[in-house]
């Protein structure tokens, strides 16, 4: 059986599950167009995930990919967190605001969230995908026994081998070009920074499951290149940010359409984990800061979100988590279904 048959789709395109951006409406439009629509539920709880899945199903009977975060649970360090808030304090003051008194873990990892696992098993989306690693063998067994197709993002061959051994059906090769959070299992380990095309080819040659190329792919030519290297499909995220159904806010869209699209930056300052973002005021304040000074993910994200809220209240959009890949200048403002059609026409 081919990957497309396994996923239940017609086209070799997966819309990346961008938490906070990929709305159920966008995912439904993509799935209805014959590709695979995705939602990211890593930043919500079980009830939030079930609402998002239900909203998708109100709009589509097609397959859905539900993405969960499998990071190691946050390590609390009150001294480090207080120092980080002190470091950010002048930026809050610029907007007449004060930083939070203390930081909290704003969402739980799927590796320990039993309620989220139960919600996914109850609602049974066609596909579940993992980011930052994979959950326990017991959780994977439960998902597989429920008949769900499992995907996992990796950034190198060792991670690829690990997720195949764990039992996933296909591997997402996330190149260094990709926008959003880097899928590394250990954010403190050395990163080889493999690009999408090199990583895709390495995984195709060394693994015996289908490979999905992700990172910097924005048009049909990019999809064709990935398929030529042996990928079974391509996953596109930044290409869908400007779509009509995207949940990206006005400041994010304006930045994506401007010069910032030419200057993406890998930063840990916003969330506590490496993530590729449009260059903005937040990436500038994080430049040169040692990772040892930034709290654990997603505790640091609590501060990042609070600072963005304060800035937006003062009509400053430059502190947002404006995740985007290196192909950002190629983004198009189209309804999602029209973008899928354009991508397929270019691929042909």
Kindly list the characteristics that best describe this protein:
348 residues, alpha/beta, TIM Barrel, eight-stranded parallel beta sheet, three-stranded antiparallel beta sheet, 14 helices, 11 strands, globular
Tell me what you see in this structure:
With 348 residues, the protein is an alpha/beta fold. It folds into 2 domains: 1-73 and 108-244 and 333-348, Aldolase class I (TIM Barrel), CATH 3.20.20; 74-107 and 249-328, no CATH class. The chain is 39% helix and 14% strand. The chain is built from 14 helices and 11 strands. The chain has an 8-stranded parallel beta sheet. The two termini are 23 Å apart.
Span between N and C termini?
Answer: 23 Å
- Could you spell the SSE succession in H and E letters? HEHEHEHHEHEHEEHEHEHHEEHHH
Rough outline: globular
What is the CATH homology-level superfamily of the largest domain? Aldolase class I
Element layout with pairings:
Elements: H1 3-7, E1 13-15, H2 24-32, E2 37-40, H3 46-57, E3 64-69, H4 78-94, H5 114-123, E4 127-131, H6 137-145, E5 149-154, H7 157-166, E6 170-174, E7 180-181, H8 196-206, E8 211-214, H9 220-228, E9 233-236, H10 238-241, H11 250-257, E10 264-267, E11 275-278, H12 281-286, H13 299-313, H14 336-347
Parallel strand pairs: 1-9, 2-3, 3-4, 4-5, 5-6, 6-8, 8-9
Antiparallel strand pairs: 7-11, 10-11
Helix pairs in contact: 2-3, 3-5, 4-13, 9-14
């Amino acid at each position: 059986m081919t990957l497309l048959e396994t996923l239940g789709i017609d086209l070799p395109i997966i819309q990346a599950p961008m938490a906070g951006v990929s709305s159920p409406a966008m995912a439904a439009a993509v799935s209805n167009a014959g590709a695979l629509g995705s939602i990211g539920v890593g930043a919500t709880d079980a009830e939030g995930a079930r609402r998002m899945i239900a909203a998708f199903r109100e709009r589509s009977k097609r397959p859905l990919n539900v993405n969960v975060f499998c990071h190691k649970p946050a390590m609390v360090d009150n001294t480090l967190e207080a120092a980080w808030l002190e470091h950010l304090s002048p930026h809050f003051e610029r907007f007449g605001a004060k930083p939070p008194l203390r930081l909290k873990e704003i969402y739980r990892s799927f590796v320990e969230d039993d309620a989220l696992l139960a919600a996914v098993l109850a609602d049974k989306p066609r596909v579940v995908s993992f980011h930052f690693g994979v959950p326990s063998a017991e959780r994977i067994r439960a998902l597989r026994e429920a008949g769900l197709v499992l995907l996992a993002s990796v950034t190198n061959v060792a991670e690829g081998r690990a997720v195949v051994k764990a039992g996933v059906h296909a591997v997402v090769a996330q190149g260094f070009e990709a926008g959003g959070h880097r899928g590394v299992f250990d954010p403190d380990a050395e990163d080889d920074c493999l690009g999408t095309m090199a990583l895709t080819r390495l995984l195709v040659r060394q693994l015996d499951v289908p490979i999905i190329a992700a990172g910097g792919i924005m048009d049909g030519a990019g999809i064709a290149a990935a398929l030529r290297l042996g990928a079974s499909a391509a996953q596109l995220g930044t290409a869908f940010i400007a779509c009509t159904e995207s949940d990206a806010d006005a400041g994010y869209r304006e930045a994506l359409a401007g010069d910032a699209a030419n200057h993406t930056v890998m930063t840990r300052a916003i969330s506590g984990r490496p993530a590729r973002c449009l260059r903005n005021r937040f990436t500038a304040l994080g430049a040169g800061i040692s990772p040892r000074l930034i709290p654990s993910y997603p505790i640091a994200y609590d501060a990042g979100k609070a600072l963005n809220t304060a800035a937006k209240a003062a009509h400053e959009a430059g502190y947002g988590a404006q995740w985007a890949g290196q192909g950002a200048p190629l983004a198009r403002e189209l309804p999602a279904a029209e973008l899928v059609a354009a991508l397929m026409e270019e691929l042909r």
